Amino acid sequence: MSPTRSPIRPLPPQLVNQIAAGEVIERPASVVKELLENSLDAGARNLRVDLEQGGTKLIRVTDDGAGIGAEDLPLAVSRHATSKIATLADLDAVATLGFRGEALPSIASVSRFSISSRRAEEAHGWRLSCDGSDSVAAPEPAAQPVGTTVEVRDLFYNVPARRKFLRTDKTELGHIDQLLTRFALVRSDLALTLTHNGRASLELPAASQPLDPERLRRLLGEDFLHHVLALEESAVGLRLHGLVASPDFARSQADMQFFYVNGRLVRDKVVAHAVRQAYRDVLHHGRQPAFLLFLELPPRQVDVNVHPAKHEVRFRESRQVHDFIFRALHRRLADGRRLGAAGAEAAVQPPQPDGAPQSAFAARVDDAGAAWPGQPAPRPLPLGVADAGSAYRQAPAPAASRAASWRFQQPAPIAEPDAAAADAGAYPPLGFAIGQLNGIYILAETPDGLIVVDMHAAHERIGYERLKAAVHGGELARQPLLLPVAVAVSRAEADVADEHADLLLRLGLVVGRLGAAQLVVREVPALLADADAERLLRDVLSDLAVQGSSERIRGEVDGLLATMACHGAVRANRRLTLPEMNALLRDMERTERADQCNHGRPTWTRLTRRELDALFLRGR
What we know:
By secondary structure, the chain is of the alpha+beta class. It has 20 helices and 22 strands. The chain starts with 12 loop residues before the first helix and ends in a 5-residue tail after the last helix.
């Protein structure tokens, strides 16, 4: 049976708009997003969103922006009509949230739509209405304050198939509430009001400063503020700033991840990969980090015209952006300094300038060999890692594993801190050990309360970081395979291997090419001598093809080092002397990422004097 042939013909304008609405308008939250972006582009500082039945019955957005003149109202609901770009050069450097000219005509094609607007120089406003058909009535005079009001009634009333995909009113309202939160986080100067079925759901006044603590507390919760680290990094024309939550605030869902590029909330694979890599060493498997980050770069360095709803962007120098984000987050997480008892307001203060110590507590610790007043220099617990590093470079993996085992040794006696050293100015960050609890926890006294340390988790992190420093200090040691492994690949994968031959060598892989579509693995990293060489090569080539780099081998090696560190760490019920406890505390203060063990669990916590007083109702 031959297919039916139809003549080629142009589509009716209304059908074109409804097709565009299918790309831009997914649910009521999509309508609110487009209208809010238009309001912000118009300079609005006060926004009110009124909803009925989760936005399916009514969406009304009122702003105090610049407004639209009567002569421009018909164009506002015309397809591809916009005031934000005029030439290709404008499109290459878009600095506004909206620019396509599709939002209003798409919304108007699937709803009963009206728009009222007034400019500051006009005596009254003008109103224009659409009913989802091709006809558009002429604007009429209307009572309207300066700004714009858009009403969207009966969404998808003329597209019943789309309306069937909408969820309950509560679900649709939740999507809109999340959307307003995202706008409120990036625009602290914006006052927002949300009502649903005549009742106020959100009333958020404008804040006087970016990252206002009270605003963040209302939007993200008190607990988030007690776990955040301030971040500020600039390099090669890029600036990354905002807040990252410490790993012990990790969540099961990615529901508190907010990343903005030049003020636009985006979902981007380059960004997501950089964040995952930065958190790799400090999170439980399957847990999600929380962050509120803002990336600023020249508009010409990012293409925002790659998705109809503008959810995604494309960076012109994606490798550079990826590495910048990764390094900034990696350094900040290594620095640590959980704020906890320091107060939520301190979280939004700028971090230490470049050049400051980067270890978890180094900002408050003297040089590694220095002693606190009244106490001789504590000797770090000998973990045997220096020997492990040299042995690793000379021996295959089994010998390295044996050399990397360590045990506690009795350090020379350390005098207990005298009374003068116990004043507030002389305490080290983790205080002085006062005892051991249940053979698991070290208790340490500080001027403002009590520190509790999980000694196994802390010792595990110390050993892990020292092993990584020893192993990754230079080129990875390699071990020849007794039988080289031939790997059949595509021609493209073989070309990737040729292009990145030097990188593969630095990663410890010696790879040759046997033909147009066949490679051979002759040497692998010594620590991974027992690994599946073919799988390892394929995974690395996949990373190189997609991202231009690979952390695959480092991840495999680090996984082995983490296991070694875990087996070598002090076990529960090991009784330690006070000098040994203090030595462990001082080592923690000099170790990066000391807030978490290798598996992402916290290594220490603080009980402030206020919290202790509350337990016993003191002062009441």
